[in-house]
Amino acid sequence: MATVAEWFLRGLALHDVDAIFINPGTDTPALQEAYARLTHEQVKLPRLVTCPHEVIACTAAQGAYLTTGRAQVALVHVDVGTANAAGALNDARASQIPLILCAGMSPSALDSAVPGGRSKFINWHQDVPDQHALVRNYTKWTQTVSLPAAVGPAVDRAFQIANSEPPGPVYLAFPRETLMSEVEASGLMGPQRIRAVPQGTLSAAEAEAIVEALLAAEFPLLLTAYAGRTPATRAAFVELAERTGSGISEYRGRFNAPLDHPQHLGFNPEQQVVDADVVLIIDHDVPFVPADLKLRDDVRLIHMGNDPIQQRWTTWGFPTDAVHAVHVPAAIEALLTAARARSDDPRIAPRRAALAARHATMMAERARRRAAALAGGAISPMEVGAILSRLAPEAMVIEEAVTSGNPFAYGFEPNAEGGYYRNGGSYLGWALGASLGARLGDPERLVVSVVGDGAFMFGAPTPALWAARENGLPLLIIILNNESYNSVVLATRHDFAGGAQDTFGHVGSLLPQSPAFETLAEACGAFGRRVTRMDDVEPALQEALAAVRSGRSAVVNIMTEAAQKPL
Questions:
Q1: SS (H, E, C) 484-522
Q2: Helix (H, G, I), strand (E, B) or coil at 346
Q3: How far is CA 90 from CA 159, 171, 173, 264, 312, in A?
Q4: What is the distance of C-alpha 107 from the center of its chain?
Q5: N or C end of the chain: smaller count of CB under 10 Å?
Q6: Per residue in 400-414, pLDDT tens?
């Protein structure tokens, strides 16, 4: 008979999993043995990708989803592996990425005659009262597969919950004895019989009412973070703005709209929302930061998304004049249908002209900032973005540069084949593993990881570079190195303006004499280069791109200026 471990692997294949990102331990040999046996028998299984740190396993599974559109699996070691992976679930939950995090559990049987029973000293230390508590804050569902016959229903249920809207991570744990148990039938039904729940769309009347509100407004504004989950939805979102004469402001969690579009008003919605009288918020969790903002008295806020009021959060607090829980692509198409029927509305053209003037002012300020940075001699993240945009506009950028993120995004303009992804959560260490997974999901794609020096260190760079080389998945990693936790510095200036740290120096937030990350890259078989002069940025990136295109990862450590305030 087959073991539970074998049925589990067959279940993952049945659910179209591309890869199992594994950080193994003493609880996983049953799975590894089953994988070896089934592979030898030529059973088609997901690719097994060894990750020398759990954060790489958990973030790589997220990155692979970004390029495949299918939920992936991370497999870690008992409580300690779960603890190491847990932070990355913060990002998966926030970015609505379906992910199956699996872990073993310390055996409870003390009899060595029981397959999988306790056999090592460490089995006692890994026996914790509530292993699931380590991830429960970030998961939609957790389950322990304690009976062999439960393996099939548990696997089916994990995918059903993870893929149901809003999608997100789930957690499945297996005691070691269970994995090694034999069972005649698994009870697996697979995706054809176990369906995820999608959201609906807008009714024709609802869509027409929203379009009329946009057309009747003085200054309608579309705010989004994740509408551009696919190129088709991105194009529909932009067309909706055009056909309603609405401004666009986005948090670049995805590539939602081209920055050079004449209705794009930038990545700082606080600068625009104060003037708007109708705001349509599409697929966004924190549309603006309300502190110190005075909205118009007559402003109407319409929220639209698969969880438009963010029910997973304890405190949210945004005005909700209308709320629509919908499948976002379908709802945008419904709005477009209504808007296309109103294309001759005379209010659209003058509003688009006014928006173009606002856009021109924003782009002129962008040009002024670029010129000032070049004149000052420091390397600005915006200029790095502009150079990368010129050299590789088709790149899929996975960015985790924190305070350098928006400046970089104002410089980098992806083309239609390009992309831009930012972690939705607050866990740093996402980008390196996510880039690895994205490249695995689309091996021909140029994937560029743009990180700050802090995020690079959080991201377990040695395991990430090893896994990239071992699996033939070369990455370009650009470090925007300001030698600080600059977000903490900016928060300090905001909370204690003119305080002791402003006068005597910042405490605990600076990272001077940062490691030679380029040398670390070389130790891992990658190309490494440190850049301290603006004139050297483009040649270094050209060399790095050539290395990646030849099959070798590259790390470019660029010493940049620190942002003095968020853009």
A1: ECHHHHHHHHHHCCCCHHHHHCCCCCECCCCCCHHHHHH
A2: coil
A3: 19, 13, 19, 30, 12
A4: 34
A5: N
A6: 999 999 999 999 998
Q: Cα(13)–Cα(11) distance, rounded to whole angstroms?
A: 5
Cis upstream peptide for 166 (omega within 30°)? yes
Instruction: Match domain 204-358 to its CATH number in 3.40.50.300, 3.10.310.70, 3.40.50.1220, 3.20.20.70.
Output: 3.40.50.1220
| Domain 2-183 = CATH 3.30.70.100 | no
Banded pLDDT at 223 (limits 50, 70, 90): very high
Q: Are strands 169-175 and 142-144 parallel, antiparallel or unpaired?
A: parallel
CATH topology of domain 377-559: Rossmann fold (3.40.50)
Rounded to an integer, the average pLDDT of 67-89 is 97
Q: What predicted TM-score, i.e. pTM, was given to this entire model?
A: 0.95
At 440 the three-state DSSP class reads helix
- Out of 111-125, 142-156, 423-437, which region has the weakest mean confidence (pLDDT)? 111-125
Taking only the tens place, the pLDDT of each residue in 354-399 is: 999 999 999 999 999 888 888 888 899 999 999 999 999 999 999 9
DSSP classification of residue 407: H
- Residue 491 — pLDDT band, cuts 50, 70, 90? confident
Q: What are the boundaries of each domain within the chain?
A: 2-183, 204-358, 377-559
Count of Cβ atoms closer than 10 Å to residue 472 Cβ: 10
Q: Does the pLDDT at position 567 exceed 70? A: no
Say what angle helices 328-340 and 204-216 make with each other, to 10 degrees: 60
Q: Cβ(302)–Cβ(321) under 8 Å?
A: yes
